[in-house]
Amino acid sequence: MATYTHGHHESVLRSHRWRTAENSAGYLLPRLNSGVSVLDVGCGPGTITADLATIVTPGRVTALEVTAAALDLARAEIGRRGLTNVDFAVGDVHALDFADDTFDVVHAHQVLQHVTDPVAALREMRRVTKPGGIVAVRDSDYAAFTWWPQLPELSEWLDLYERVARGNGGEPDAGRRLLAWSRAAGFTDITATSSTWCFADQEDRDWWGGLWADRVLKSDMAATALRTGAATQDDLQRISDGWRTWAADPDGWLSLLHAEVVATKEATK
């Protein structure tokens, strides 16, 4: 695994806990049925996991994270919702500790952009999927993010984030590569789509701009930028202030592009 660029600071979890199956896995929902088994790779704080578990009950969802500490975040959310059809596992998506043909659906949200070898990860996800089952992945594409007004601090943020993420072994512009990666992993039956998150009203700008203003100063991304010399503390403060300037502007608008792939594992003949 590559180093997870964001880390798990509160400012990061503030964003991740906002995610739901509806706003982050809408492309997958029509493919889900009651009773199916799901592996949720890189489940994070478990909000999407919990939604998937509710949808597929009495089917089971297995929540996977790379460390026990990260998995505990999902355990807490699942416990808070009182769900009983979720299992938990620590593992590496490059070498999954499951037998071939185990799950009906293997899902990963914003994971492949952080892994060392996304094609190998997709091959593993394909391996543990049942014949006729699906692998569903969604990743953002940072270079395709767009906003107004065109503040130089936000352009500086994008450049810094991409340099830090690539230095950690990831690919922040993963979205545009999902189709190619899926084909390279051996899939031939692939549906590729895209969707966006848009933040444009004052409440949304305050929330998104505020959490990134904090993340730039306090998350693992900030620590890595300082440690590697990619940015100084003054740089980070300037970028953070830029996010707050954007959030306060009534003309402020931002759209984030996400690519999605649903790839079917061919049924055996």
Written overview of the protein:
The protein is an alpha/beta fold and 269 residues long. It is 41% helix and 22% strand. It contains ten helices and eight strands. The chain has helices at 10-16, 21-24, 47-56, 68-81, 118-127, 152-167, 178-184, 202-218, 220-228, 233-248, and strands at residues 38-41, 61-65, 86-90, 103-109, 129-140, 146-148, 189-199, 253-264. α8 packs antiparallel against α10 (233-248). The protein starts with 9 loop residues before the first helix and ends in a 5-residue tail after the last strand. The mean pLDDT is 96.
Short description:
This protein is an alpha/beta fold and 269 residues long. The protein contains ten helices and eight strands.
Distance, first to last CA: 35 Å
Low-confidence stretches: none
**Alpha-beta content class:** alpha/beta
Order of helices and strands: HHEHEHEEHEEHHEHHHE
Number of strands: 8
Shape descriptor: globular
- What does the main sheet amount to? 8 strands, mixed
Number of helices: 10
